[in-house]
Amino acid sequence: MRCRHRLSKLLLRHGIRFEDGHAWTDRHRQWLATVELEWPAAQATLLDVRGAIDALAVRRDGLERQIVAMLPASPWTAQVGVLRCLRGVDTLSAVGLCAEVGDFQRFARAEQLMSYVGLVPSESTTGQQRRLGSITKTGSAHARRLLVEAAWHYRPRPKLGKTLTERQQDQPQAAIAVSWNAQKRLHHTWTRLEARGKRRTMIAIAAARELAGFVWAITQIE
Hints:
Elements lengths: L1 H12 L12 H7 L7 H31 L6 H7 L7 H11 L8 H7 L4 E6 L2 E7 L5 H11 L10 H7 L4 H23 L4 H20 L3
Antiparallel strand pairs: 1-2
Helix pairs in contact: 1-3, 4-5, 5-7, 6-10, 7-10, 9-10
């Protein structure tokens, strides 16, 4: 992501924008190959960053293949299976949550998991006054980031697409029901808070907190 940001900001400084779809798609990569900057130093920087991105993508893909290959023999196979039933949580996100949280059964309530990943509001109490502040950001920053990224997938209307249907095959019906309830609840959170004029980044945090609750619920299924 740092390399991608570096490249995009370099192009913006030269007034160059990609306006033919989303960034980092195949179309975007083909477009990048045609970009030529006027200054030799800038062009050299562009080529260097493009090469770094390609090298990191190869490394990332190789590590992903190794993780997927090791998963069937891991103690997290069942947990990863039910977590993948959730919208926005595929194999790598599920494995990342398992690696960061460990045993989900050690949390007696969903609120304990929310607190563990630092998604609950901080609190300041003085006498009879109780004030809530920003989230605590305690615990695993990686698990928190995974949940926030997944929370953005709940902004569109609830639906059961082909990819999610395939991930839910052979999984318990109770897990599929939790997944559907999560879609309805978190989409409602998005629409309700957007109607109140809240910033989307703040809404994503609120949705991630609720998603942590559904993560806890779905990992309690036996």
